[in-house]
Amino acid sequence: MSPLLSPESPELDDAHFSLLASYAKHLGRAPKAIRFAPHSGERRSRQKGHGMEMLELRAYQASDDLRHIDWRVTARTGQAHTRLYAQENDHQRLLLLDLSSNAYFGTRHTFISTRFIQLAGIIAWRSKQQGDTLSYRMTYGDQEHASNKLATLSSLLNALKNASKIANRACSHHDATSIWCNTPLTRKTHNKDVIILTDKQGWNEDENNALMELAQHNSVHWIQIIDSNVFNLPAGQYQMADNQGMKSVTISNHSMQQAKADFLSQNTSMRNKLMSLGIRHQIFDITESPEKIARYLLSQGALH
Questions:
Q1: Which end of the chain has a smaller Cβ tally under 10 Å, C or N?
Q2: Structure confidence by residue, pLDDT tens digits, 184-228
Q3: What is the pTM of this model?
């Protein structure tokens, strides 16, 4: 089976993150001419390059790029003239990764946390390969890491590797506010693609207001990964681990049906909230590869 779909261990090593680089490189191309128009009226082209829009034609200066000389005007006037173009549009991206202790679980292939981390790794590599600006904030266990452009790719990948450690399951931060709250990194975020990777399903009013503010000025994509097989387990007794350690859990057909109904109800409520804020929400199963999820983000213009 593919090492991407089913890694040998949910705890990822350097070799696995190197593998993700190859998958990131071969994702394909993003759709052309995708535009982003947030509520505030800002507009941003996702195409890079000086040829998009000429701003001015003026006399040549010593610091000008020779490639931009307008030779026709130069020949007609006898004086060198330069075309000035609009500044390249930098593709700016904010990655928010928030893993609860519940994410360190899975019934097949790997943990939900691992799939999120693989996807984050592909996003990191793709951003580097395309020369994009990637800011990030991540919380897991009792740790938090954040950077606004300054960190190297190696430090980001190292943080992701640490995030895959199963020991993080025992260090729950369930009382912490949502990852998009109480940080200058998100308050100052404008005109970016924001990718939220989390198993979170609910938030309070203050957190909702902060999320609304983020969505007003950015294109926000919310990725949810679940293990649907958990609702199909045969009735019986299981040994399961949570943030308090191993415990014996008895599952009946009734309790399984109730758990599925509760999940669907909570998820529908969450989806409706996100839709009302203009946030794109997509749910994937753990049986789907991180490459497939990354291609979805590519199709939505969140990657290029």
A1: N
A2: 888 888 889 999 999 999 999 999 999 999 999 999 999 999 999
A3: 0.81
Q: Identify whether the C-beta of residue 36 lies closer than 8 Å to the C-beta of residue 215.
A: no
Integer angstrom CA distances of residue 137 from 7, 24, 91, 99, 293: 25, 20, 18, 12, 20
Q: Quick check: 4 and 27 in contact, CB under 8 A?
A: no
* Identity of the amino acid at 298: L
Residue type, 157: L
Token representation of residue 77? 């006037």
CB 279 within 8 A of CB 220: yes
- What does residue 13 show for φ and ψ, rounded to 5 degrees? -110, 180
Report which DSSP code applies to 232.
Answer: G
Q: What span, in angstroms and rounded, lies between the C-alpha atoms of 263 and 257?
A: 10
Buried b (16+ CB within 10 A) or exposed e, 239-261: eeeebeeeeeeebeeeebeeeee
Give the chain's length.
304
289: which residues sit within 8 A by CB, 6+ positions away?
Answer: 2, 4, 5
